[in-house]
Amino acid sequence: EEAGGTNGGGLLGLLKEADEVAAKQTPQTTVQSQADEDAEEVHVLHILRKHSGSRKPKNRGWQLITCSKDEAEQYLEEIANQLVGLSGEELRAQFSALARSDSDCASAKKGGDYGRFQRGQRELAFEDAAFALKVGDVSDIVSTMSGVHLILRVP
Predict the structure, then answer these.
(1) Of 141, 142, 152, which Cα lies nearest the Cα of 12?
(2) Is the alpha carbon torsion for 92, 114, 135, 152 positive or negative?
(3) Do β-strands 113-118 and 142-144 pair in parallel, antiparallel, or remain unpaired?
(4) What is residue 98's three-state secondary structure?
(5) Fewer CB within 10 Å, N side or C side of the chain?
(6) DSSP annotation string for 24-75
(7) CA distance between the termini of the chain
(8) Mind listing the pLDDT tens digit of every residue in the chain (155 residues)?
(9) Contact, 57 vs 68, CB < 8 A?
(10) How far is CA 76 from the centre of its chain?
(11) Which contacts qualify for 91-97: CB closer than 8 Å, 24 or more apart?
């Protein structure tokens, strides 16, 4: 079961509202700023929070993860709240810093940089969320077999 969706409550709801307000205030004139679900590849940063039901429930220090999926999602909501109101390089820098300190993925040492990928190379829920984002947007919480993620699409 995936969290998020359309303007859910909580901190992610606030993020979504802030994005909508910014979208109304910012003319969307560049092709790059549009969501491009037909793109051949995307480049993303992500923050992974594993939980006890994850495929490999161990953190980067190989310690067993004991938190529930709900607790992992709440943790990511707190992280998402720290991104509200940020955009551009400031958003990317803060997202990278949070990935370095809080992500359970090995990509944390690269600021959460998950690299470029094409369709068919990642788990479907992660892939669908990444391709649906506009460059500079942060996803709602995305649930995969690895855990729960926040994703930032970058150029």
Answers:
(1) 141
(2) negative
(3) unpaired
(4) helix
(5) N
(6) HHS---SGGGS--TT-SEEEEEEEEE--TTSSS-B-TT-PBP---HHHHHHH
(7) 29
(8) 334 444 445 656 555 565 565 555 444 433 444 455 567 999 999 999 999 999 999 988 899 999 999 999 999 999 999 999 999 999 999 999 999 999 999 999 999 999 999 999 999 999 999 999 999 999 999 999 999 999 999 99
(9) no
(10) 9
(11) 91/136, 91/138, 91/152, 92/45, 92/152, 92/154, 95/45, 95/47, 95/138, 95/150, 95/152, 96/45
pTM exceeding the 0.85 threshold for the entire prediction:
no
**Run of H or E including 89:** helix 88-102
Residue found by looking up tokens 């802030």 in the block? 18
